[in-house]
Amino acid sequence: FLLNHGDRAAEVAGVVGTDLLSGQSCTGHVIVPPRSALVVHENIHREALTPVEEAHAYRRILERQGLSQRALAKHTGVSQSQISKKLRLLDLPVGVQEAVSAGMVGVEEAGLVLGEEGAVAEIVGEALTAAEERVDLPTLIEDARHSVRVQELQERARSEAEDRGAPFVPLEGL
Asked: Per-residue pLDDT tens for 55-91?
């Protein structure tokens, strides 16, 4: 009789009165994967966690257990690349994370925001927070880049006008 892992398996062992511990075999060999890694693995398969919730769970395990992504992948049965993709979600602005959780933006799509400068990522995050339906993220990113560029050009023009002592009148509708 062998209990592989998990809180539920340990509870069952207590109910049936066995003295075997989670991960201990009858021969006495013990292989105990990190308990929280196994609990997350069970919860991911049992519950409908959002990708961001999964990422937070993976991050907690990595920090608490001191595991590498590769070791976590081995213990959970999830590929290291999938764990890495999920963890990158935590580097996104909160608005983008919320959009991923709501299903308005896919995990792969959200990765497009990671390469953007802070102002663009912030604008995209704010726009996604205000959105009520699925959006075309590449178009949103391009619009945000344009907006940031216009702001930069207006700031430069304002500065140059001030240096010359001339009034600055911003153009509307750009």
From this structure: 998 999 899 888 899 998 888 888 999 999 999 999 9
Q: Are 95 and 131 in contact (CB under 8 A)?
A: no
Q: How many residues does the chain have?
A: 174
DSSP string for residues in 1-66: ----SSHHHHHHHHHHT--PPTTB-TTS-B----HHHHHHHHHHHHS---HHHHHHHHHHHHHHH-
Give the span between the Cα atoms of 64 and 124, in whole angstroms: 32
Token digits of residue 16? 């049936």
HSE value, Cβ hemisphere, 13 Å, CA-based, for 34? 22
The residue type of 77 is: G
